[in-house]
Amino acid sequence: MNTIFVIEQLLNGIGYGFMLFMLAAGLTLVFGIMDTMNLAHGSLYMAGAYVAAKVHAGSGFFVGGVLIAVAITVLIAFLLEMVIVRRLYQRDHLAQVLATFGIILIADDLVHALWGPSPIMAPTPAALTGPVQVLDGLPYPSYRLLMIGTGLVVAIGLYLLVNRTRLGMLVRAGASNRRMAEFMGVRVARVFSFVFALGAALAALAGALMGPISAVQIGMGESILIPALVVIVIGGIGSIRGAFVASLLVGMIDTAGRAFLPPLLRAVLPPTLAADLGPALAGIAMYLLMATVLSLKPAGLFPARS
Amino acid sequence: MSSVPLSSQAVSRPRASAPLRFAPWVVLAALAAIPLVAPAFGLDYYIEFVRRVLIVTIAAASLNVILGYGGMVALGHAGFIGVGAYTVVALVDAGFDQVWLAWPLAMLAAAGFAAIIGAISLRTRGVYFIMITLAFAQMLYYVAVSLSTYGGDDGYGIYSPLSLGWFEGWHPHMLYWIVLALAAAAFALVGRLAGSRFGKALQGIRDNETRMAAMGYPVFAIKLAAFVGAAAVAGLAGAMLAVNNAFVSPSLMHWTESATLLVMVVLGGLGRRWGAPLGVAVWMTLAEVLKLHTAYWHWPMGVALLLVVFFAPRGLAALADRRREAA
Amino acid sequence: MFSLKHAALCAGLAFASTAALAAAPVKVGIALDISGPFAASGAEARDGFNLAIEKLGGKLGGVPAEFLQTDFAGNPEQANQLVSRFIQSDKIDFFTGPIASNAALAVAPRLFAAKVPFLSSNPGPSQLAGKQCNAFFFGQYQNDTYDEAAGVVANAAGYQRMMLVAPNYPAGRDHIGGFKRTYTGQVLDEIYTKVGQIDYAAELALIRSSKPQAVFAFLPGAMGINFVKQYVAAGLSDIPLVAPGFTADEDVMHAVGDAMLGVKNTGHWAHDLDNPANRDFVAAFRDKYDGRYPSVYAAMAYDVVMAMDAAVREVKGDVANREAVVAALQKADYGSVRGAFRYGANHFPIQNYYERVVAKDAQGRMTNTLVGTVLKEHQDAYVGECKM
């Protein structure tokens, strides 16, 4: 356990945190502003990953692949919103869960029919396959540095959008009081469509960027849905700031749990017990964190609504 | 937008016409006849299929109580099913094989866990409640996966069937009738609950918690009691599943199982006593039939969900309502 | 009163029933992983089954056969339901199909009680090799043997300090246990990851700071894909990876890409094993499926059908005599794609295990190539616990 190790784990925690942030940002926007529980967020993430991987593998252009993936996913999201999601805004959460769960089932079979059941190849861009010497003796995957950078840009961009632009103001107005905003001439329906599309774009971006370091396969959306939901609940639904803080928190705690807990337990407990307990605790660390936060602050860290 | 669907008005409906009133008895008789009739047609497999449907119905009925009457959207109910199932595993591992010992203990275990989980979770509202119940169920899942004594992810096989105690040896399909009897009891209980004092208080809390608190009802205690009671019944269902399948694995507790249970209850009709049986029967039969014919069986289920959400939002049981009102 | 009419009726019935018996097809229940966590391996297995069925013209041992293929989504409860239907409704004579050990353990008791031979097309859990062994189960390999072979490979390569990685569930622990059974060097640490974990950065940092000579990783499916991709991206490719075949098979390598080249892995079969049955199989597979190489799952699936074919031929179509079928299966008297082998007392094979390495073939296509034989006629470690 030396300084290099600690710094590397710190970077890892931040990296994982930013990964989670990109996933959670889109979800908390839709949830917070339209009060809509959109489980199909995972399917949009999957769409972004698949399209980006296919375009990149076929053409060799990584950035192009990401942009095309985002564009196509936004298109799909527009269609989805027009046909189904729009009718869910006024419904209760249960109906939303059911309908979006149905969308997940349809999307899974669609991807199965289009690209088969096996995971597909999502290559890392050639320039970023190797590590970068962050410090002496610490090579860090350059691709992860890209992800951290992108995450930061997305965070700043979202903050500016929501708090400093007219569009952001309209979004906040529509969210806090739809009727009043409509009376004042705000086309709330248009604003909601925009927010949904923005959420989809973020999901697709996350998917496209995660592809090279994870498995692109059917069901990848469901596996990140839970961590994303946990993050936005801890952070407070509807709060971008909350999602940011919560994802970094979850990233750090999860990483720390996996890095430091097993050796710590081994030093204190008998080996068989430590071997059983360590990974189990590390696995549920994120849930323990959420349960703790919710028992102290039942609406999350930075609730957007009172 | 609330988390609670306002549509589950379980109490104020016109009195059912005569045929409909006798429907539960007719259905019960038909179900009881299955083990006697099916072998004649070579349909033995369906005895076990119906038995499984009945067990899941018991679990769904318990979820219907807290969801339909109580408005508590719990996405971790499968966790309690798992606790019940693993209680049976623990007892079998320790050498006890009496069903009449295992099942009540399973209910107790599930109730115990629910008391702790409920005490923490019920402080939250809306989607936070959904998420925290989900989190606890996932924790139970990961613990079960790590427990190598009870097989962990490999699961635990129950090689010698449990004894049915006094009923042992009466008839090869005795287990089916025991399951049916318990399912009928659950059905009757859910039906009675709507009109009972406790049930009415629960629905009152669902509709307006502040008002109920102002009127002096112990809101937290009532919700907790409902939560724990429902968990106990779910634990019973889990214990029955363990005996039915002769096998238990952590996948019983995965969040997708909780989500599926939720789906079945809403499909059938929230807060309606036929909600659980209808929802479970339709969903499980649909899945069974589809799987026989195609590898792509997910998307029709997805379409079915969308249809229910948009065209039958109060569930299948409510479709009968509309026809009666129209007539 | 006994009359000529009665006699004729009886004779007629007897004739009709024997004719019916002779005409009844052999029924094989195949529970497939089409959806669920093992969908990729399940798809491979299905391709292997279909190739064999096509080759035999839909017959087993010359008798018409019906193959009932159904998806059980990798869920042990659904597997249970499916097997119930297979046994009670369809009255199958043979069963095969699941990829994962948990599904196999879930359905085994029912199949044994109904005396339906269960030919494994992958799972080889230690329970079925040892304490719960049964005459009606025929394994392809026992889970630990792949890792025992990997241990031998590590010893031969001179890796004296290694780190071991596996997911935290019983199979993961078994695989690490199997490796430690033969590995003679020093185990620096055993890292257990979360099942379904996506991000391995923390574990990779641990590996880097411990500076092992090599790393043994059992991470099947998506976990393996994630791990290897991130392993290479973290700049750890100087530290060689040794793996049991599942971490480095066709589905994983094609999703990972060139980062996978050079990974040593072990298995009981390789596509370039030199025996006539295997040459036929690989050629036919590549011909039918656009030039792609079969994975071990396809090979095992194909092999299972061939084994059934030989057994049915041996009992001359009388599959109702289950004891005779089991005896026939035990003889293993057919050309297996893995070459000659025989069954041990627990109906798990005593066979060779090979070292393979991920490399590109002459056409530049990535696949596992055979390096050499690691263990000859190796038997699993659990046969002593079997009381058959």
Explain this structure.
- The complex is a heterotrimer of chains A (306), B (327) and C (388).
- By secondary structure, chain A is mainly α.
- Chain A has one domain (3-296): ABC transporter involved in vitamin B12 uptake, BtuC (Orthogonal Bundle), CATH 1.10.3470.
- Helix content of chain A is 75%, strand content 3%.
- Chain A has helices spanning 3-34, 41-59, 62-83, 93-115, 142-164, 166-176, 178-183, 188-210, 220-235, 240-268, 271-296; strands spanning 131-135, 138-141.
- In chain A, helix 1 (3-34) packs antiparallel against helix 10, helix 9 packs across helix 10 (240-268) and helix 9 (220-235) packs across helix 11 (271-296).
- The longest helix of chain A is centred in the N-terminal third of the chain and has 32 residues, at 3-34.
- Chain B contains 13 helices and two strands.
- With 327 residues, chain B is an all-alpha fold.
- Chain B is globular, with a radius of gyration of 20 Å.
- Helices cover 70% and strands 1% of the residues of chain B.
- With 388 residues, chain C is an alpha/beta fold.
- Chains in contact: A-B, A-C, B-C.
- Chains A and C meet through helix 1, strand 2, helix 9, helix 10 and helix 11 of A and helix 2, strand 8, helix 8, helix 9 and helix 10 of C.
Number of domains of chain B: 1
Q: What is the 3D form of chain B?
A: globular
Q: What is the helix tally of chain C?
A: 13
- Give the CA-CA distance, first to last residue of chain C: 52 Å
